[in-house]
Amino acid sequence: MHKLFLTVLAALALLGAGVMLGQKTVTGQKTLIHTISFKQVEGTTPQQMREMFDATLKMAAEVPGMRRVWVGKVTNRGEDYTHGIVMEFENAEALKNYAPHAAHKKWEEIYFKVRQPGSNTIDVQGE
Length: 127
What we know:
Elements (H helix, E strand, L loop, with lengths): L1 H21 L9 E7 L7 H17 L3 E8 L9 E7 L2 H7 L3 H13 L5 E6 L2
Helix pairs in contact: 2-4
């Protein structure tokens, strides 16, 4: 009986450890997310969009404080916004320094050729 009790206890301990390890843990980020959604200029070619997306990735590598960037099609805003860019910055100061940066100015020259005026920008500061 004692052996059976120890076996059951060990099985329960293993089960509990498995449950604890298998639990999904999510933590909030304190970084700043800068999102841009826009509609591409009519007649823009896939190659021009690719060049803009490549320029976005290049800019991200050059701007201090920019951690990550996502580029792609907007999937849930109908025809008003066709494409989007999401940038993650270390903090609000990094976003502030991004706008006047030379790499950003160079990127804008390419970006403004493929987007219609009236983009939508949202910044979210993690807490």
